[in-house]
Amino acid sequence: MPGFGDILQKAVYLGVGLASYAGEKAGSKLTELRTEAQKLADELVKRGEMSTEEARRFVDDMVQQAQQQQPPVASAGNEKPAEPRRIEIISEEEDVSAKDAKETGGVDKLREQVQNLQEELRRLKRD
């Protein structure tokens, strides 16, 4: 049976993997948006409806708006929180042996790493 540290470590890896995957997806979507906006701008320049400088600003504005736009809010009864739901693990064991005390130090390190990763993720979202 896997230990608490193994489960926590796998949960952290899963979270980091999901964040990485979401970042990659967002990047590919922004690239697609830039490509489509550039095609539209090129077409408008070709028709003479827009100058090349206006086209460049148009593409930049579209990408900037997409980066700043928040995901659509769900219906009032089904709103999603801004942060993931926090999970608290409560142990029913009251007696802590020396071995458990050593593992607790490892758990504290993992908690600190998770907290650091959460802070970094928040910082990246703001940038």
Shape designation: rod-shaped
- What proportion strand? under 5%
Category from helices, strands and their pairing: mainly alpha
How many strand segments? 0
Total DSSP helices = 3
Radius of gyration: 23 Å
What multimeric state do the chains show?
Answer: single chain
Low-confidence stretches: 72-77
How far do the termini sit from each other? 41 Å
Helix content: over 70%
Average pLDDT, rounded to a whole number, is 76
> What is the succession of H and E elements?
HHH
The biggest beta sheet is recorded as:
none
What would you say this structure looks like, in words?
The protein has 127 residues and is mainly α. It is 71% helix and 0% strand. It is built from three helices and no strands. It has helices spanning 4-47, 52-68, 98-126. Helix 1 (4-47) runs antiparallel to helix 2 (52-68) and helix 1 (4-47) packs parallel to helix 3 (98-126). The protein is rod-shaped.
